[in-house]
Design brief:
The structure holds two protein chains of two kinds. By secondary structure, chain A is an alpha+beta fold. Chain A has one domain (about 1-150): Aldehyde Oxidoreductase, domain 3, CATH 3.90.1170.40. Chain A is about 35% helix and about 35% strand. A four-stranded mixed beta sheet of chain A has the order 1-6-8-2, with helices on both faces. In chain A, helix 3 (about 105-120) packs across helix 4. The two termini of chain A are about 25 Å apart. Chain B is an alpha+beta fold. Helices cover about 30% and strands about 25% of the residues of chain B. A five-stranded mixed beta sheet of chain B has the order 2-1-5-3-4. In chain B, a hairpin with a 2-residue loop joins strand 3 (about 55) and strand 4 (about 60). Chain B starts with a strand and ends in a 6-residue tail after the last strand. The interface of A and B includes residues 95 and 127 of A.
Chain lengths: ~150, ~80
């Protein structure tokens, strides 16, 4: 099962991950997961909150399309993607990705690939706000390089 | 009428997230749309001229500057994307 959710609401990764773990079939040998949080500081200084802009309908469709591709490429039994948008206070979770497979290698690879796509290819725009104002965060050369690895 | 949507730094440049406009008949392609907006509002236009701002017409990304946007009801200006 593939489930992708874009939400303005705060979510609890532990509860979502627990339900995902419980849902696994008997042949599942591996679940890999990643949780991304809003840090309280960055290279630019203190972070009060992040603001994540998205393009309603288009973003949901693109994330679902990317998730379908990755689930197929790695023969996943299940893939979960939850991505928060709107105003996200520092320390709050932003994203949860989790994958189920018989074996660990595909589960690890799928989670890493989904995250690399979300960093560069999914229609989100991220602005970091601190005491000195706000700035848009765009992908780095390293983000694009990691993303390009999957296209090979 | 066409709805223009602005995201990320394009939204800052526009000072709003969307605007409704009446595209003239001679605006057919992405390149012509960028030029027209530049003539109308040089400050916003200079930001929107950047090729790293991709354009989507009715939820489909325009693959080149020559792609037609004629007849689209919604056109989005999308700077480099970054989620996660």
């Amino acid at each position: 099962m593939i489930r992708t959710t874009i939400t303005t609401e705060a979510f609890r990764p532990e509860a979502e991950l627990n339900a995902f773990m419980e849902s696994r079939g008997d042949h599942i040998g591996a679940i890999a997961s990643f949780i991304g949080y809003c840090r309280t500081s960055s290279a630019a200084g203190t972070v009060k909150h992040l603001e994540l802009d998205h393009y309603p309908v288009f973003t949901e469709r693109e994330v679902a399309r990317l998730a379908d591709q990755i689930a197929e490429r790695h023969s996943l039994d299940a893939l979960l993607v939850i991505h928060r948008v709107g105003l996200i206070p520092a320390r709050d979770p932003i994203v949860l990705v989790a994958a189920q497979n018989q074996h660990r290698a595909e589960a690890f690879a799928a989670v890493a690939e989904m995250m690399d796509y979300l960093k560069t290819d999914a229609p989100f725009w991220k602005r970091e706000s601190g005491p000195d104002g706000a700035r848009w965060i765009e992908p780095t050369a390293a983000d694009y390089a990691r993303r390009a690895e999957h296209a090979k | 009428m066409t709805k223009l949507l602005f995201f990320g730094r394009a939204r800052d440049a526009a000072g709003c997230s969307e605007m409704i406009c009446d595209l003239p008949a001679n605006v057919e392609t992405v390149a012509e749309l960028r030029s027209w907006l530049h003539q109308r509002d040089p400050e916003l236009g200079s930001v929107l001229m950047a090729r790293d701002i991709r354009v989507a017409a009715d939820h489909t990304i325009c693959v080149s500057e020559a792609t037609s946007v004629r007849g689209a009801s919604e056109i989005a200006f999308m700077p480099p994307m970054s989620g996660g």
